[in-house]
Amino acid sequence: MVIGVCTIDLDIPMSTSLKDKRQVIRSVTMRLRKEFNVAVSEVERQDARQTTVLAVVSVSSDRDYVHGLLTRVVQWVEKTRLDCVLVDYYIELI
Predict the structure, then answer these.
(1) Other CB atoms closer than 10 Å to residue 54's CB: what's the count?
(2) pTM of the entire predicted model
(3) Any idea of the CA torsion for 59, 62, 66, 69, to the nearest 10 degrees?
(4) What angle do the packed helices 18-36 and 63-80 form, to 10 degrees?
(5) The domain spanning residue 65 has which CATH number?
(6) Can you give the residue range of the structural domain that contains 80?
(7) Model confidence band, residue 1 (pLDDT cutoffs 50, 70, 90)
(8) Using alpha carbons only, how large is the chain's radius of gyration in Å?
């Protein structure tokens, strides 16, 4: 069994309040869950107005599948989310 964890560091430059930020995060997490069937949670900087860190997790018996899935998640965030900027990401397979 392989557990893949991807941490994604995001900037949300248009956010003027925590309410704006949470609206963007809610949208991102719901779309990721629907599109990729992964677990998603905000794990750092919950009280910062324009930055956040999301953790995306997937479990499978195939190491290559998990790595490919998490890579596609990162690409999806970069290409489709115009309301946030991907600053950094890290993929770890356990």
Answers:
(1) 22
(2) 0.91
(3) -120
(4) 140
(5) 3.30.70.1120
(6) 2-93
(7) very high
(8) 13
Contact 54, 7 (CB under 8 A): yes
Residue 92 near residue 42, CB atoms below 8 Å: no
Amino acid occupying residue 44? E
Q: Which two tokens stand for residue 4?
A: 């893949």
Question: Which residue is associated with the tokens 């930020």?
Answer: 21
Please report which confidence band the pLDDT of residue 38 belongs to, taking 50, 70 and 90 as the band edges. Answer: very high
CA–CA separation, 25 vs 21, rounded Å?
6
Tally of domains in the chain:
1
Residues 6+ apart with CB under 8 A from 19: none
Token pair 């990729």 is at which residue?
A: 36
Closest CA to 32 of 16, 54, 13: 54
Residue in the structure block whose two tokens are 């998640």: 73
